């Protein structure tokens, strides 16, 4: 694995933990038991990538090929369930990790779509889906109006980022 791929992988794992923590925190806030919190954490962390992989017919989805994603999501969810006040106080740090995860998942989803030879629209949609659908499912399962439907900037930033990544990829700039 080259250093660029290692950095993306590390950010992917970090994003997985951050998204799982945000999903678990939503479950704690809604009064869910441990199983509900863990399910919400897993769905938030992996849901977008699973949907992407199923639509691309790349099965089994990524988190079943590399179960580290699932283990991290479960562990993060349990930690949040046991210490929710700690995570409530870390609001700024959680926002930063969430933004890092969102950007990383967007790049990974768009890149994977390009590897499957999708065009502009398909690549951007797969990138946005990878970045946002876990949170969408989290909100639906916790009986909330999905955040992506409330804050236009959230989805719009992903669309712009996915389009920018697509066009930069098409210019074939050197990677190092």
Layout of secondary structure:
Layout (H helix, E strand, L loop, with lengths): L2 H27 L4 H22 L6 H4 L2 H15 L1 H6 L1 H25 L4 H22 L5 H4 L1 H20 L5
Helix pairs in contact: 1-2, 1-4, 1-6, 2-4, 2-7, 6-7, 6-9, 7-9
In brief, what are we looking at here?
By secondary structure, the chain is an all-alpha fold. The chain is built from nine helices and no strands. The protein has one domain.
Q: Sheet bearing the most strands, described?
A: none
Oligomer: single chain
Backbone CA Rg: 16 Å
Measured between the Cα atoms of the first and last residue, the distance is: 14 Å
Which percent band covers the strand fraction?
under 5%
Structural class: mainly alpha
Q: Which geometry do the CA atoms define?
A: globular
Number of DSSP E strands: 0
Give the count of structural domains: 1
Outline the structure in words.
The protein is mostly helical and 176 residues long. It has one domain. The protein contains 9 helices and no strands.
Entry keywords:
176 residues, mainly alpha
């Amino acid at each position: 694995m080259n250093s660029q791929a290692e950095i993306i992988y590390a950010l992917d794992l970090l994003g997985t933990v951050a998204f799982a923590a945000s999903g678990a925190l939503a479950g704690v806030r809604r009064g869910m038991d441990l199983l509900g919190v863990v399910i919400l954490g897993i769905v938030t962390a992996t849901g977008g990538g699973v949907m992407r992989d199923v639509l691309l017919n790349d099965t089994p989805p990524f988190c079943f090929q590399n179960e580290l994603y699932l283990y991290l999501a479960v562990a993060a969810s349990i930690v949040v369930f046991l210490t929710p006040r700690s995570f409530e106080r870390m609001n700024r740090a959680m926002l930063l990790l969430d933004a890092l995860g969102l950007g990383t998942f967007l790049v990974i989803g768009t890149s994977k779509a390009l590897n499957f030879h999708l065009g502009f629209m398909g690549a951007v949609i797969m990138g946005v889906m990878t970045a946002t659908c876990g949170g969408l499912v989290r909100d639906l399962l916790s009986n909330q109006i999905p955040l992506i439907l409330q804050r236009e900037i959230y989805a719009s930033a992903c669309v712009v980022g996915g389009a920018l990544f697509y066009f930069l990829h098409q210019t074939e700039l050197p990677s190092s």
